[in-house]
């Protein structure tokens, strides 16, 4: 079974290959433009090759800033969020927005529960489509006091 490090490493390699593959059309266009400019005596061959080299270098230089856009999506269905904890970004009365990790989700409170104030910790109980059904999260001191 692959470790998380091996999976992340494979994802980074796949992202880099995807990035390079998507740069090939640009490199081809620059090559054609260089060829046309060289044949028309507007640019010496050395200049056309330098233009292509600059273009490839520019793409490689930009990759670290663009890498996250080429990494595979998490791909987890929303149902895997059941049990996750987050923060109410606005009052849930009975609907509003909650933040789970770095993502903002539309949420409703569990039927029969009281409104959840903005800034409160919530826990995901169900998922209905792309809407989370949440309730006020129990505080750690309440959990330990009960048992």
List keywords for this structure.
147 residues; elongated; OB fold (Dihydrolipoamide Acetyltransferase, E2P); 21% strand; alpha+beta
What does this structure look like?
- This protein is an alpha+beta fold and 147 residues long.
- It folds into 2 domains: 4-70; 78-145, Beta Barrel (OB fold (Dihydrolipoamide Acetyltransferase, E2P)), CATH 2.40.50.140.
- Helices cover 46% and strands 21% of the residues.
- It has helices at 4-39, 45-70, 140-145, and strands spanning 85-88, 95-100, 103-109, 121-128, 131-136.
- The chain has a 5-stranded mixed β-barrel with strand order 1-2-3-5-4.
- The radius of gyration is 26 Å and the shape is elongated.
- The model has no long low-confidence stretch (mean pLDDT 87).
- For this structure, the CATH topology of the largest domain is OB fold (Dihydrolipoamide Acetyltransferase, E2P)
Q: How much of the polypeptide forms β-strand, as a percent range?
A: 15-25%
* Shape category: elongated
Class from secondary-structure proportions: alpha+beta
Radius of gyration: 26 Å
Number of domains: 2
């Amino acid at each position: 079974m692959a470790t998380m490090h091996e999976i992340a490493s494979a994802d980074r390699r796949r992202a880099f290959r995807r990035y390079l593959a998507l740069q090939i059309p640009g490199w081809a266009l620059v090559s054609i433009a260089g060829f046309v400019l060289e044949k028309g005596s507007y640019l010496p061959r050395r200049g056309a090759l330098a233009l292509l080299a600059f273009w490839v270098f520019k793409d490689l230089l930009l990759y670290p800033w663009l890498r996250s856009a080429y990494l595979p999506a998490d791909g987890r269905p929303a149902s895997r969020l059941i049990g996750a904890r987050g923060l109410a970004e606005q009052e849930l009365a009975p609907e509003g927005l909650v933040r789970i990790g770095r993502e903002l989700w539309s949420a409703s409170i569990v039927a029969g529960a009281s409104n959840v104030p903005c800034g409160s910790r919530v826990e995901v109980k169900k998922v209905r489509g792309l809407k989370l059904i949440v309730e006020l999260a129990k505080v750690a001191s309440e959990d330990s006091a009960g048992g």
